[in-house]
Design brief:
The structure is a single chain. By secondary structure, this protein is mainly alpha-helical. The chain is built from 2 helices and 2 strands; from the N terminus they run ββαα. The protein has one domain. A two-stranded antiparallel sheet has the order 1-2. Helix 1 packs antiparallel against helix 2. It is rod-shaped, with a radius of gyration of 55 Å.
Length: 176
């Protein structure tokens, strides 16, 4: 006689029983049951141990992933600090350069105002000379343009006056 033991996954042929008494069969069946229970319990223990080990590995992997993320964050933060310090140094240098240029511009503006005033006086002298020449030409009954270089002097006086005025009104746009 053959006894088949049915498990969840398959049917196994465990013992061939031939010429055994019912008591022997009962003992063999009990042994098979005990073997099955022990084997089943062993499998459960092994499965739980194996699963616990996997869980630990997953935990380590997660911890390593977080550690990698932290390291990347640190690297990104250090790069940001470096770039921000560089940008701040550039901004400070630009501010210093602007302050120097502002001082230069202020000095130049003061100098330009003096220069413009100086050339306005020269323009006034040229115009005064031209007015005298025009009056004398009128007294003689001759047009002022007949005097040699009168028109050229008038043109120069106008240009000097316009340029001096432009220099005096120049906008340095210093925010003042």
């Amino acid at each position: 006689m053959v006894v088949y033991v049915k498990t969840k996954t398959r049917t196994q042929k465990n013992v061939v029983l031939a010429n055994y008494t019912p008591k022997d069969i009962k003992n063999v069946t009990n042994q098979i049951l005990i073997s099955y229970i022990i084997m089943n319990t062993g499998q459960r223990i092994f499965t739980k141990l194996f699963k616990d080990e996997k869980t630990e590995l997953n935990t380590h992997e997660i911890k390593l992933g977080v550690a990698d993320d932290i390291n990347k964050s640190i690297q990104n933060g250090e790069n940001a600090i470096s770039e921000l310090k560089k940008a701040l140094q550039e901004a400070e240098q630009i501010k210093k350069d602007f302050a120097k240029m502002e001082q230069t511009a202020l000095k130049h503006r003061a100098k330009s105002e003096k220069t413009a005033a100086k050339f306005e006086k020269i323009t006034d002298k040229i115009e005064s000379t031209l007015n005298k020449a025009e009056k004398q030409a009128d007294d003689l009954g001759v047009p002022a343009s007949a005097i040699k270089n009168f028109d050229k002097a008038m043109s120069i006086a106008t240009d000097v006056f316009d340029l001096a005025d432009d220099l005096k009104r120049f906008d340095y746009n210093l925010g003042q």
